[in-house]
Amino acid sequence: MTPTLVRQHLAHTGETPRVDPGARARDWSEIQERMLVPLYEAVYERLKVGHGTRLLGLGCGSGLALLMAASRGAAVTGVDASRPERLALARERLLPEAWGTHPRGDTRLVEGTPQDAADAETPAYTLVTAFEPIGCLAGDSEGLGELLRAATPLAERGAPVVLAGWGPPERCTTSSVLRVATKLADPLRGTGSWRPALRDDLEEVAQRAGLKPDGSGRVACPFGYADLDSAVKGLLSTGLFDAAISATDQAQVDKEVAEALHPYQRRDRTVWMPNVFRYLIARVP
């Protein structure tokens, strides 16, 4: 929930959520994506990201984490196979030809898999990131191990690979709002149901991908919104509520999410929800 929340996993019903992907992508980039900035900053500071860093961002979305790394001097490549609307916004940020400026020659964005970003002229990456947090929905790490196994051959031996996840539910007030998605999507429950984060979620994914854990950390990432409407739009932009929208309707989901947010609305009408996220640093063998 994040500036990112979690990867989008819809229940397997064959139905397409009744949402506007373009509007959701814009809400993500303008409202929700910034919520994990403290996580990005903590990781980049710990790993001394800067000139000489060659970063591969998996599931890069609309590219805020890449932009932050590039501002430190890193050469960045982002890949995303499932969200073309977000990737289009990343191109506006990182490859802004439309604004009459020149894109950096060491910035690449690829719609596809890590293999689609590989070529003989690209040097090995010194850092791989998968910042979209897991540990919130049942099955939300499915596919991540395969993605990591595809990416690690493109990285230097010993290069760090960073995974992110939700902290304990008692440290994440947003957990209570996420349960609304499970309740409304009850007829579709399965891979889209809420579950509390487990202590070893990240380590298990890393080990399945053949990576060696080598340190971790926790970062406070409060979700703060200007008002209730912004909070609803931001949270819905994550995709976590799409199954609920398919099972009910947009108005019902908006109403119940807004009601769940009331305990976190302050006197000045802003919404504030403290959360803790965890990151794991693993190494390419």
Q: For the largest sheet, list the strands in their spatial order.
A: 3-2-1-4-5-9-6
- Derived from helix and strand composition plus strand pairing, the structural class reads alpha/beta
**Main β-sheet description:** 7 strands, mixed
> Helix and strand succession?
HHEHEHEEHEHHEEHHHEE
Radius of gyration: 18 Å
**Overall mean pLDDT score?**
87
Oligomeric assembly: single chain
The termini sit apart by 30 Å
Total beta-strand segments: 9
Low-confidence stretches: 1-17, 98-103
Shape category: globular
Structure description:
By secondary structure, the chain is of the alpha/beta class. The chain has helices spanning 21-32, 37-46, 64-71, 84-94, 144-151, 175-184, 201-208, 228-236, 242-247, 250-261, and strands at 54-58, 75-80, 107-111, 127-134, 160-166, 212-220, 223-225, 271-273, 276-283. The strands form two sheets. It has a seven-stranded mixed β-sheet with strand order 3-2-1-4-5-9-6, sandwiched between helices. A two-stranded antiparallel ribbon has the order 7-8. Helix 4 (84-94) links the parallel strand 2 and strand 3. Helix 2 (37-46) packs parallel to helix 3 (64-71), helix 6 runs antiparallel to helix 10 and helix 8 (228-236) packs across helix 10 (250-261). The longest helix is centred in the first third of the chain and has 12 residues, at 21-32. 49% of the residues are buried.
